[in-house]
Request: fold
Amino acid sequence: MKRILQGFIAFLLLGSITLAQSPSYPRDVTLCWTHPTLYEDSTTIQDGDIAHTRITGTRHSGETIVDTTSAMTVLPGAVQCQTLVGAIPQPGTYTFLAYTVTVDAISSDASNSADKKFTGKPLPPNALGVQ
Reply:
């Protein structure tokens, strides 16, 4: 069974808030990840092999706030971003994970976690590396 290369977790999910620095909630979150290029057996993932990305987000309390999919819009190895509108319901620490899913329904291991703290206070521009 083909599983996406566990060691190739360059599938880094980088969570960051959007440019809006309003202290009001709910807040948007923009997530970016790099699609993997190899299966676990070291064969190359071809264009069209990846069906979508599953994104999950949880609060520090364990409450799931996001469980959605994102269609693949780039080639394997490329960066893709998506803004989840209103995903952050209140101040707290949130963890986001992503899983690449192939067309034959094989899922990758979880990405490296992206933990972000939302305090309810306005942040200075580029505080979290937002471009």
Notes: The beta strands are 14-17, 27-34, 50-59, 64-71, 79-88, 92-102, 114-118.
